[in-house]
Amino acid sequence: MPLERVCYDCGSRTTTPVARCDCGEPLWLATDPSALSTFDWDAVTDAPGMWRYAPLLPVDGVPADDAGLLHAAGGTPLLRTPALDDFAGARVHVKVEGEHPTGSFKDRGSALGVAAVAAGHAGDVSAVGTVSHGNMAMSTAAFAAAADLPCLVLVPADVPEARLEVVAQFDPTVRRVAGDYGRLYERTLDVGPDHGVAFLNSDVPLRTAGQKTTTLEICEAFATGADTASSATASTPASAPDAIVFPVSSGGHASAAWKALRELRESGVLDAADVPSLYLVQAAACAPIAEAFEADAEDVTPVEEDETIAYSIANPDPPSGKRALAAARDTGGAVLAVDDDAIRTAQRELATEAGLSVEAASAVALAGLQELTTRGTVDASDDVAVVATGTGLKEATGATVEAPTVDLADVDDELAAFGDAK
Amino acid sequence: MPLERVCYDCGSRTTTPVARCDCGEPLWLATDPSALSTFDWDAVTDAPGMWRYAPLLPVDGVPADDAGLLHAAGGTPLLRTPALDDFAGARVHVKVEGEHPTGSFKDRGSALGVAAVAAGHAGDVSAVGTVSHGNMAMSTAAFAAAADLPCLVLVPADVPEARLEVVAQFDPTVRRVAGDYGRLYERTLDVGPDHGVAFLNSDVPLRTAGQKTTTLEICEAFATGADTASSATASTPASAPDAIVFPVSSGGHASAAWKALRELRESGVLDAADVPSLYLVQAAACAPIAEAFEADAEDVTPVEEDETIAYSIANPDPPSGKRALAAARDTGGAVLAVDDDAIRTAQRELATEAGLSVEAASAVALAGLQELTTRGTVDASDDVAVVATGTGLKEATGATVEAPTVDLADVDDELAAFGDAK
Predict the structure, then answer these.
(1) Sign of torsion, CA A61 B96 A153 A304?
(2) Share of chain A above pLDDT 70, in %
């Protein structure tokens, strides 16, 4: 079955398995209109993880029971965490995307992409690839290994070897590429299929189709009262959060969120008034989408990248930048930037108050929410889902270790001192 | 409500919040007999994660909707992974415990322990502590932070600072202790409560009560057909796997599995004939329980510890060693040891065939299963749940990185070469 692709911008459609519209903008996979017209939360299946939304995904139902890793994508917790409310200035619900096999939301898109390739839905391809040096590389390699598909990972020439070790464990083919990263990213989309390789880059139709499910899960939790801790009363749970805050890099995840919300609106599951605002947050050191938003620009101008602790979202020339701008504007949201000090503070707050270890690139979402409430853009009574895109387990925490040595003979005294001080 | 504790060995009961029986053996928390008599899979709630089994847990129902991190414990995937069957010699189902907030099964016991302390069920204590330098330290610190309980982490004097950083991010009090680790472990259980600190060490009643849920989830998946990939037909799903394989260190998790199976048998949910055999696997470099099992000994003799890549299960003097022996014997299982080469091979197999990154200490379970099928102890037609206790994301993978550099101008040739070779 050839999957139809649609352009959010000019409305063109095609069944050719390309990532870009003739107008130059990134494509989405179209969703089956009959599935959309009959969709509501009661129609959701009890399949594992993200596959409960199979009717809205470009796959032939749920992967087989013995599909292994595919069943581990999605189904992450949404945690109501009042301990963060004061810091954030709103009612915080954290979506813990780190609880994935490779520790990030990337597993949703990798699962969808690999399942589609294996089922022959992605054109004449029999292998996958990706241009990435972080979470996406690891995720793509893992899901390819589980599906027994060859996998090619292309990384920038200067990536530290330690960051490649986590990718190499799944045994993909890895190449460092010397040259412009953005051009490499687009080139692989152009020529990959000629060589039988579906490149599951950050904002391609297959990946964003899988990443819709982050937002579907958040909205379902509110709508069905699985998250009954929302400010609405339990008997009439809110049908959606007031806002969802994402870190933004390529714009792929943000555009997937927008697509999900459009589908929920189109199916009648969400009224127009209930559609959550999408807020997208960048690191100030590399914030081309935020700068375009502030400047009321229609498109994003590439920037020079500075160093940031949120390196995994530092994309100076985001391929779905214009689409991310449209997502924020269409939903009444915004794109903003936060500096490394704010990111570090939010990361620490997540760990010490909510017990959540997230990577710096994920902490930008909470830092962004704080900025939004400070500005008065988001209210204290708003229920806000903060998407913690990736675990902090993969990187050094930078936490200061204060651990003086005591003798076993003195441990009773130490316990007494701790007991008195607590 | 004082929680009753019961000794598996001599049968004594007590409501004093102690970890050890007067006979010296570790205690379990008793489960409410009326809950047991009415329990079956239909009675399970739809609460998040491990709390669906609240009737069998020593808590007053499910934690409040705004309890944050507590809701993220449990509910991990059980993946039917045929790609591992040839290697293992049986039908493999992997329980992916790495999909927890801090990346290991320890979060189940930490969640239960912290919830019980916060609810006043653990005696006159208002803080938690633990003796650990790895997964358990991180897990306890995270759940304590989320519950706003003071936390004291005691580690051996020679632990590398890098391993403490992941603990320090949650801001517990950390002390290195010079002296015998086993004595420190027991001493904290003895005197912790005197100073208002509940030590959630590896095999204490509160922690093992939470860890029962690993086994409950595995059995429920088989019984209800949530894992319909078992060898029984879909219309009559197997009521339990034939065997469950755990890594074993202190013996706490193993004893929790045994307790869960005893409860399922007592409640009539499992017939005696359907109780899975518990196989417990150690690293050969430090295998006191396996040695005792081989020697038909009733109790475990401490050993000298050698180096092993599975360092996080290298316990030369396991406090629940005798209880683990009883668990294996009572269920018709066994305790065995595998060497580092076998562990490394199993770890690589999990990554390259199933896409699962696990720590070396978790890979021992798959290595052990291979040994059991080689011996003929487990059959090729057996459905076996292999418990992958912790993620591999926290440690260096040791994978060899082969990533030659190519020029962007040559990337088309590289794609062609990859396409031809695949």
Answers:
(1) positive
(2) 96
**B144–A196 C-beta distance less than 8 A:** no
Residue A383, SS3 per DSSP: strand
**Strand pairing category for B13-14 and B5-7:** antiparallel
Q: Hey, are the CB atoms on A351 and B406 less than 8 Å from each other? A: no
Q: Please determine, for residue A366, whether its predicted confidence score (pLDDT) is greater than 90.
A: yes
Provide the token pair at B285. Answer: 């470099």
Q: In this complex, is the C-beta atom of B354 within 8 Å of any C-beta atom belonging to chain A?
A: yes
Q: What is the ipTM of this complex?
A: 0.96
A55: left (phi over 0), alpha (psi -120 to 50) or beta: alpha
Cβ A310 vs Cβ A283: under 8 Å: yes
- B233, with CB counted inside 10 A (0-12, 13-18, 19+), is exposed
B65: distance to nearest CA of chain A, Å? 5
Express as a percent the part of chain B with pLDDT over 90: 86
User: How far is it, in rounded angstroms, from Cα B151 to Cα B129?
Assistant: 5
Question: Any chain B CB within 8 A of the CB of A353?
Answer: yes
Three-state DSSP at A178 gives strand
- Is the pLDDT score of A152 beyond 80? yes
Residue B270 gets which letter from DSSP?
A: S
CA distance B178 to A406: 6
Give me A298's structure tokens.
Answer: 């229609």
Q: What are phi and psi of B335, to 5 degrees?
A: -120, 130
Task: Read off the pLDDT of residues A176-186 as tens digits, 9 standing for 90 and up.
Answer: 999 999 999 99
Name which of A103-112, A381-390, B113-122 the model is least confident about. B113-122
DSSP-derived pairing of the beta strands A243-247 and A197-199: unpaired
Quick count: other Cβ atoms within 10 Å of Cβ A328?
Answer: 24
Name the pLDDT band for B43 (thresholds 50, 70, 90): confident
Residue B262 in tokens: 């005893």
**List of E strands, A44-148:** 78-80, 91-96, 127-131
Going by pLDDT thresholds of 50, 70 and 90, the confidence category of residue A128 is very high
Amino acid at B241: P
Closest of B166, B174, B120, B128 to residue B149, by C-alpha: B128
At which residue do the structure tokens 């081989």 appear? B294
Query: Residue A386: helix, strand or coil by DSSP?
Result: strand
List all residues 6 or more positions away from B249 whose beta carbon is below 8 Å from its beta carbon: B202, B282, B312, B313, B314, B315, B318, B361
**Percent of chain A clearing pLDDT 90 (strictly above):** 86
Which residues neighbour B158 within 8 Å (Cβ) at sequence distance 6 or greater? none
Yes or no, beta carbons of A72 and B66 under 8 Å apart: no
Residue B232 has pLDDT above 80, yes or no: no
Helices (H) and strands (E) in chain B, counts: 13, 14
pLDDT class of A227 with cuts at 50, 70, 90: low
Beta bridge partners of residue B177, listed in sequence order = A406, B156
Query: Which residue, among A304, A325, A322, A323, has the nearest Cα to A314 in the 3D structure?
Result: A304
- Record: contact A127-B83, CB cut-off 8 A: no
pLDDT of amino acid B222: 94
Both tokens assigned to B422: 């695949």
On whether the CB atoms of residues A213 and A100 are closer than 8 A, the answer is no
d(CA A132, CA A393): 19
Say how far apart CA A276 and CA A245 lie, in whole Å.
10
Helix axis angle, A135-147 relative to A106-118, nearest 10°?
Answer: 30
- Using the Cβ of A412 and the Cβ atoms of chain B, whether some distance falls under 8 Å is answered with yes
Q: Please check whether residue A53 touches B, CB under 8 A.
A: no
Domains of chain B: 80-102+218-388 (3.40.50.1100)
- Element holding B245 (H helix, E strand): strand B243-247
Closest chain B CA to residue A234: B65
List of chain A residues whose C-beta atoms are within 8 Å of the C-beta of residue B391: 103, 393
